[in-house]
Amino acid sequence: GRPGVQSGTAADVAAVLRVVGNFLTVKGVPSDAAGARALLDAFPLLVIDREIADLAADLRREHGWRLPDAIQAAVRERAARTPAGEWVVGFKYDDTKTRDGRPLSRADLDLAAPNHPVLIEHRGGHTAYCNSAAFRLAGVSAATADPPGGKIDRDERGEPAGRLAETAVGLVERHVPVRSTPADRQAGVKLISQMLAKAGITSVHDASASVADFRAYQDARAAGELGTRVYVLVYANEIDRIIAAGLRQGSGDDWVRLGGMKTVCDGSISERTARLAEPYVGRPTDFGILVNTPEQLWPQLEKAHRAGLQIGVHANGDVGIDLVLDLYERLQREAPRTSSGFTTVQCSRRN
Q1: Distance (Å, rounded) from C-alpha 16 to C-alpha 14?
Q2: In 3D, which of 58, 3, 8 has the Cα closest to residue 35?
Q3: CB burial readout 309-337, b (16+ within 10 A) else e
Q4: What is the Cα–Cα distance from 256 to 209, expressed in whole angstroms?
Q5: pLDDT tens, 101-141?
Q6: Mind giving me the DSSP string for 77-114?
Q7: CA-CA distances (angstroms) from residue 261 to 179, 207, 237, 266?
Q8: Measured between alpha carbons, how far is 140 from 118 in angstroms, rounded to an integer?
Q9: Residue 148 near residue 156, CB atoms below 8 Å
Q10: How many CB atoms lie within 10 A of CB 155?
Q11: Beta strands 150-154 and 160-166, pairing class
Q12: pTM score, two decimals?
């Protein structure tokens, strides 16, 4: 049968692991210490988009609510503990896991928190759900046009129905106060690092980090609180700060290392925003969203490439993936590099 698995950090097991074919040989551990268990070190996981984003100490474990009324109850309970007019924010909502098969609506959230602006982010990070108070505060109405690279779902009267996709999320999200401090983010890094280590994951990529996130990783490393190696791609809107600081791909140490820049081409398959050549099933006019056009992506990519940074572009649909590959080919023609490390993040659907 399969051996049992006991998780822990490298310091816990103090072992040297050698991989030989399909067999694991552990040295430096008495036989009775390992027993019938396998010790896994440096198991890599690519953490993409928002999986380790927003490194705040207010992180909570997933509750697994699967019915809109249960989600409403959770929002209502949080609103009861929040002063009227202040934001109620949730994350990791997944409309594909709800038992009644329908997404949250503006009306659902209005019933739960009529006196608080509410923003619930989807687990994929490409859509969010809001109530009427949030739309009023952000000035989003039937008269608001879809922003380039985004979409406002609307009801039969043209009013916002609750769901925002891609750049449209920013219409509301920019009004949510950022309360996390550097200490909060460092505490978040420590917590997530412990969770990953317990799962046997010792090496991750944060492919959508801010400069503040990068500093939080470094602060946790300096404090001895980082038990996971982190490879960081900083989001495109902050890449000028990285270049001005003279940082290059590989800057850092074995625990916190800078990779380069992350940007976005299209959306998410599960949220129906990835850009496809054919329409989504049951949606004959819906081909997804091109968040950034080639003309918008090119200056971002060229700047990072010429600065010696790795590039990771989020592309999920076949149209988005082909577009990104064309841009990578152009970069290599115009500014060849032997170690460019071009990455297509997600790369879910190819023709």
Answers
A1: 7
A2: 3
A3: bbbbbbbbbbbbbbbbbebbeebeeeeee
A4: 12
A5: 778 899 999 999 999 999 999 988 999 999 999 999 999 99
A6: HHHHTS-TTS-EEEEEE-GGG-TTS----HHHHHHH-T
A7: 25, 8, 9, 16
A8: 14
A9: no
A10: 13
A11: antiparallel
A12: 0.80
User: 166 near 200, Cβ under 8 Å?
Assistant: no
The label of the residue with tokens 């572009």 reads: 313
| Cα→Cα distances 50→127, 212, 277, 316, 323, Å | 12, 15, 26, 15, 23
Residue 27, both tokens: 């040295």
Residue 319 parent element (H or E): helix 318-334
Which fold, 68-173?
Answer: Diaminopimelate Epimerase; Chain A, domain 1 (3.10.310)
Q: Could you list the beta-strand ranges (E) of 131-188.
A: 150-154, 160-166
Q: What is the pLDDT of residue 64?
A: 58
- 165 Cβ neighbours under 8 A, 6+ residues apart: 126, 127, 150, 151, 152, 153, 267, 271, 273, 289
Q: Which two tokens stand for residue 253?
A: 């140490």
Long-range contacts of 1-6 (CB under 8 A, 24+ apart): 3/36, 3/37, 3/38, 4/35, 4/36, 4/37, 5/37, 5/38, 5/40, 5/200, 6/37, 6/39
Q: How far apart are CA 271 and CA 44, in angstroms?
A: 26
Report whether pLDDT(17) > 80.
no
User: What is the spatial distance between Cα 328 and Cα 15, in angstroms, rounded to a whole number?
Assistant: 41
What are the domain boundaries of the chain?
A: 1-41, 42-54+185-260, 68-173, 265-351
pLDDT of residue 65: 59
Alpha-carbon torsion 95, 99, 104, 109, what sign? negative
Look at residue 8 and tell me whether its pLDDT is greater than 50. no
| Separation between Cα atoms, residue 318 and residue 265, nearest integer Å | 11
> Comparing 95-109, 212-226, 286-300, which segment has the lowest mean pLDDT?
95-109
Q: Give dist(CA 210, CA 237) in Å, integer.
A: 9
**If you ran DSSP here, which 8-state letter would residue 164 be given?**
E
